[in-house]
Design brief:
Protein name: UDP-glucose 6-dehydrogenase
Radius of gyration: 24 Å
InterPro entries: 6-PGluconate_DH-like_C_sf, NAD(P)-bd_dom_sf, UDP-Glc/GDP-Man, UDP-Glc/GDP-Man_DH_C, UDP-Glc/GDP-Man_DH_C_sf, UDP-Glc/GDP-Man_DH_dimer, UDP-Glc/GDP-Man_DH_N, UDPglc_DH_bac
Catalytic activity: UDP-alpha-D-glucose + 2 NAD(+) + H2O = UDP-alpha-D-glucuronate + 2 NADH + 3 H(+)
Pathway: Nucleotide-sugar biosynthesis; UDP-alpha-D-glucuronate biosynthesis; UDP-alpha-D-glucuronate from UDP-alpha-D-glucose: step 1/1
Helix content: 40-55%
CATH topology of the largest domain: Rossmann fold
Shape: globular
Bound molecules: uridine-5'-diphosphate-xylopyranose
Structural class: alpha/beta
Family: Belongs to the UDP-glucose/GDP-mannose dehydrogenase family.
Number of domains: 3
Largest sheet: 6 strands, parallel
Length: about 450
Amino acid sequence: MRMTVIGTGYVGVVHAATLADLGHEVLGADIDEERISALAAGIPPVYEPGLRELLQRTVASGRLRFTTDMARAARFAPVHFVCVGTPQLPGSKSADLRSVEAVVDALAPHLAPGDLIVGKSTVPVGTAARLAERLRRTAPGAGIAWNPEFLREGFAVRDSASPERIVVGVASGHDEAVLREVYAPMLRDGVPFFRTDPNTAELVKVASNSFLATKISFINAMAEVCDAAGADVLTLAEAVGADPRIGPRFLQPGLGFGGSCFPKDIRGFMARAEELGVGSAVAFLQEVDDINTRQRTRTVELARGLVGGAFDGTNVAVLGAAFKPDSDDVRDSPALAVSRAIRHEGARVRVHDPEALDNARGLAPELQYTLDVPKACEEADLVLHLTPWPEYQAIDPALLAAQVRRPTVVDARHALDAAMWRRAGWSLHAPGRPQPEE
Ligand code: UDX
């Protein structure tokens, strides 16, 4: 089958390469010329394990090509996946849908009856219905469907090739048949397929992310209670998660969620629910958001206390800038938010991250950066472990102790071997866990 993927950001490029790998002939389109020429040379726009290999393989096969010519893309195939961004509108909780609308408007004049636009971007419920209305005037006979993606950064290639489910919101049997053909190899492998209406499909995505965000904030709220009660949130999470009705995943306490999805999606959902007159049904998401942000302030407070009540004149080393490991994404990164707050209060902050430094520099130029862990920790009064990259677990705490001014570490992600660090002379603090007598 021939198809296009419009928008070659994180979701689009993974989706396009996965479709080409399934055997389809795919044209990726984007208005960013630099990005398109890099992609044509097999260079992905983001760091993602396995993506470069997948891209190079599919480009070399000739099944994946790229263009900046929207009219050419529109004529290339009868199916068009829309994978452009829907960021949070500045100063508002709502999603900015201008890119999605622009793509639909650019495609419309070239579409033939029976052609199908398939949205993958995360959008407020009702968006497909509104776009369908628009298409009725601009491209009569063309259809619109919604097919949300659920891929996680760091696992995007794997999630895309072996999804846990495929959800399609369609308006007709014809549109369903088209999407079944697109995903036929996966369906043969038994991936669950949910056919529904576009409104439900759009909601499945935000409901899933809201649930997961709630789970994370729930366990972080428990960490706060544990701190007050002298209990241990890690054991609590393990024991609570052992109930199969609850499950252990997304029950890791720490610095909370960040990234390009959860924060924006729950806020967009609250805004849309308000518009629909059911704001109170999801008002709890405000609490989820607040608990999440509070983990950042709590970490700053803990750090401030550990350096004697004020950051002025102190050196703070930060391990991790990405919003999570195996990602170079710093969008709404809890690690960067904490680093910036501490810098703002007068500390000299040196940040290490194996992949995200370029992005971090762009967003937070006031911080210092290094690719060398010992250098980040040189003369540090405090080390903050904020993004749990596996390489930090391999640090020899005895060697690192020789670099710092005071061997004090906050393990905000509960990923370091606390006993080993303490044996090496460190005072280790982990929110939600009792502090041993020193
Ligand atoms: C998420 C969803 O998982 C994915 O299905 C959706 O398509 C996009 O949003 P992603 O943002 O890539 O994916 O990251 P994810 O691995 O889900 O983690 C989100 C955030 O939650 C990270 O900041 C992570 O550190 C944090 N997290 C996750 C926790 O704090 N505790 C957990 O137990 C799990």
